[in-house]
Amino acid sequence: MWRGLRRCFSVVKGEETSFNELLGKELGQGVEEYSKALEFVKENQYFSAETEFRKCLEILESNKLYGEPSYNFILLRLALMLRAQNKLTQTEKIMEEIVSNYKAREKQYPEQLCSSYENLLKQYLVTSVDKAIMLGHFLMREENWKILQRHTQKDVKFLLGTAYALRGDTLSEAKEYFTECLKMNPGPNTCFVLHNLACTQWWHVLKYKNSDPNALGEETEEFRQATVDFSEAIPNLQKAIQLFEDKNELYTPNLGNLDLKNKLSGLSITNIAEIHFQSANLEVS
After folding, report:
1. How far separated are the first and last CA of the chain, in Å rounded?
2. pTM assigned to the model
3. Which of 161, 163, 193, 245 has its CA 20 to 30 A from that of 2?
4. Residues sharing a CB contact under 8 Å with residue 10, sequence separation 6 or more, in sequence order
């Protein structure tokens, strides 16, 4: 069931600066290893690509470019190659290194620092949910929050909510952050936020599936709120599908085949089906 949560989503950003532009044309054209790495990526030979990217880093270091945007550019691509090989611990360390590099040059590269924080937060959702929560709250400190771009602030709210949902025992907190993100108007990413909010609303009520409402004690209020929120789960999934598919009308499960074009919608439909299936076993007052 937990795989039904969306951990990351697309964020519309400007075009990325090319490696040659970052390095300068003369030096950039001289780094043949970068071109070799790209060819290996196209062929899905990730270990070979990793090797070439590491050679690129050695060349950049020898030119005293450690920590500069060109160096971090290659570091990020190395991290992606490691992730593709499921070398998640190494991936995490490199993402942390990129953040550290830009933090040391915060005034020069504020936008890159924001982006590196967001990439690290997404990586922590895979490798350590607790680290994701710690980083999310660190970024929400007043002195850090004010330097983040508006779209990054929205993403932090979404990713922090996702981290709380993945932890499993902090579903109320997860719903709060998803709701806050929606209030900030996440634009084209609204469908992802609605999807994860709906999943969390569903999982929260499942927590009390085998509980006696009259014997909950201090959790009585949480149970009541969970049951109220659960009534919004399917409508939120319906709206998520509508936005995924760019439909004029709200998706309804009994309409049959809507000629869905976006594979992302399939997961939302599966979640709706599971909620309907399990609702027969839930006594929600």
Report:
1. 24
2. 0.85
3. 245
4. 188, 189
The CA-CA-CA angle for residues 261, 267, 271, to 5°, reads 135
Is the pLDDT assigned to residue 255 strictly greater than 50? yes
pLDDT at 261 over 90: no
**Would you state the structure tokens that stand for residue 103, as one six-digit string?**
């933090």
R_g of the chain computed on alpha carbons: 22
98-155 pLDDT, tens per residue?
999 999 999 999 999 999 999 999 999 999 999 999 999 999 999 999 989 999 999 9
